[in-house]
Structures are given as C-alpha cells and as structure tokens.
Amino acid sequence: MPAIRESDLPGIGRKFQIETRSGDRLTIIVHDDGRREIYHADPNDPDNWISMVTLDDTEARQVAGIIGGLAYRPQSLESVEVALNKLVIEWYRVEPHSPCIGRTIGELEIRRKTGATVIAVIEKDQTQFINPGPDYVIKPDTVLVLMGEREHINAFLALVMNGCE
C-alpha cells in the first residue's frame, strides 16, 4: 500500500503526499475554499514538478468518482476467466527498481517456475515484441503481457515480489 503523509497548511488547507509503488510522487493540496491542486513530481528529482492541475470542488469530486470506479467499473478478471475458459491474459508493468531489470526471460525461467507465458512485451517507447524469446532483456517501465491460468499469473507475481528468484 502506498505511503500517504498528511500535514496541515494553516490558513490554506491540508496537504497529502503520496509515493506510489511505481515510484511516482504526488502532492495534493485541498484548499479551505474547495480548490484542489495536484502536483506530479519527477521521481529522480522530487523538487522538480512534471505537471500541476487545479480543480474546483465539483471537478475534484467528478475525478474522484472516475478514479474510484463510480463512472466505470472494469470487468472483473473472474468473468474474463470464464469467457476465456480459465485462460487469463494480464499486463504487468515492470517497476523502475525491480530486481528483474537487466535479466532475460530465460534467465528468470518464468514459464518453468510459474507456468505463465510472456506473449508480448511493450517497451516504454511503445516498441512491441510479440512472442519474445528467452534472450529478451527486461527493461524498466516495460509492460509484460502474460498468459496463463490465474494460478500461473499469481505465481509470476509471487516471483516478482520475491526479487525474481
């Protein structure tokens, strides 16, 4: 779960700082007049803001509803599994500090250790590799498209969470 730090800003409102699992840093300031400011910091330089958005109270509530799933609820994986007869296709983004970076698909023995198959790779620059071979070297912010049954995907996630060992 991401760490959230809160602090009062006397005469202004309240500040929330969030560091996501992927290393992104967000700062949200809720002003006493209802405005919200959202700042996105450069993960390599937290004092450098990549972007900033100001929302009024109504806009902030609309965005919260969208992000929270009130406007659109993604189809659950369980129903996808039924539709595909237990076959699951899932996208996994390689975090910037993952221990898997610099290692090959073959070196990690993904299929042998987990039963999941990497059927495609989408790199940060949108270069795509369909059915990458065992010599493909995993890079930061790469999306691995995995295929298998739910237990295989869960085994892959366990492999990644345990340091790719």
CATH topology label of the largest domain: Alpha-Beta Plaits
Approximately how much beta-strand content do the residues carry? 35-45%
CATH architecture of the largest domain: 2-Layer Sandwich
- Average pLDDT, rounded to a whole number, is 83
Number of strands: 9
Strand sequence of the main sheet, in spatial order? 1-2-3-4-5
Q: Helix proportion of residues, in percent?
A: 10-25%
| Overall form | elongated
Q: What would you report as the Rg, rounded to the nearest angstrom?
A: 20 Å
Ends: how far apart?
Answer: 23 Å
Structure commentary:
- This protein is of the alpha+beta class.
- It has 2 domains: 3-67; 77-161, 2-Layer Sandwich (Alpha-Beta Plaits).
- It is 24% helix and 36% strand.
- The chain is built from 5 helices and 9 strands, in the order βββββααβααβββα.
- The chain has helices spanning 57-67, 77-83, 105-108, 110-114, 150-161, and strands at residues 3-9, 13-19, 25-31, 36-42, 45-55, 88-93, 117-122, 128-130, 143-148.
- The protein has a 5-stranded antiparallel β-sheet.
- Strand 2 (13-19) and strand 3 form a beta hairpin.
